Amino acid sequence: MGGINILSMGAAAVAGFIAAALYYNIVGKQWQTATGINEAHMREIIGPACFVTAGISQLLIAGVLAGVYYHFGADKLTLRSALITGGFLWLGLVVAPMAVNHRFQGRPWALTAVDGGSWLVVIWVQAVVLALMGI
Predict the structure, then answer these.
(1) Measured between alpha carbons, how far is 122 from 16 in angstroms, rounded to an integer?
(2) Could you tell me the CA-to-CA distances from 68 to 61, 103, 119 in Å, in that order?
(3) What's the angle, vertex CA 25, arms to CA 23 and CA 27, rounded to 5?
(4) pLDDT one-digit tens code per residue, 38-52
(5) At what angle do helices 48-72 and 79-90 cross, to 10 degrees?
(6) pTM here?
(7) Cα separation of 84 and 80, whole Å?
């Protein structure tokens, strides 16, 4: 994995962070309804630690995606293959466990849909950046 393009990984992480921020600006009210968190509670719980965690997580996701793509061969990476692989990873490694967790937590399916949609957007945005910039 020493041949992974760190610049494209960083760009993918930044793009994913921005995409998630835009996504939640659009579906923020649905997320609040699904979580039961109101504006006042949001101001209490969302602080710098949340954004640092999100940034580190974006880097981890970009690194894992780059590693998977690199493992299968950089010469095989196309925009199409990046999106398909990202979609499969999202379905099996993000949505499936999230659905289980949300069911055991008594959370509504709406939360799974909103949060799952966010991670699909993030993974696909990162996949596009990695495919276009190269791994």
Answers:
(1) 5
(2) 11, 29, 17
(3) 70
(4) 999 999 999 999 999
(5) 120
(6) 0.94
(7) 6
How many Å apart are CA 105 and CA 108, to the nearest integer?
A: 9
Tell me how far apart the alpha carbons of residues 36 and 40 are, in angstroms, rounded to a whole number.
Answer: 11
pLDDT digits (tens, 9 = 90+) for 37-93: 999 999 999 999 999 999 999 999 999 999 999 999 988 999 999 999 999 999 999
Terminus-to-terminus CA distance in the chain, angstroms? 10
Mapped onto helix, strand or coil, the DSSP state of residue 105 is coil
Both tokens of 30, joined, read 């649905």
Distance between CA 113 and CA 2 in Å, rounded? 36
CB 134 within 8 A of CB 7: no
Structure tokens at 3: 């041949």
Tokens linked to 115? 């949060």
Query: How far is it, in rounded angstroms, from Cα 5 to Cα 1?
Result: 9
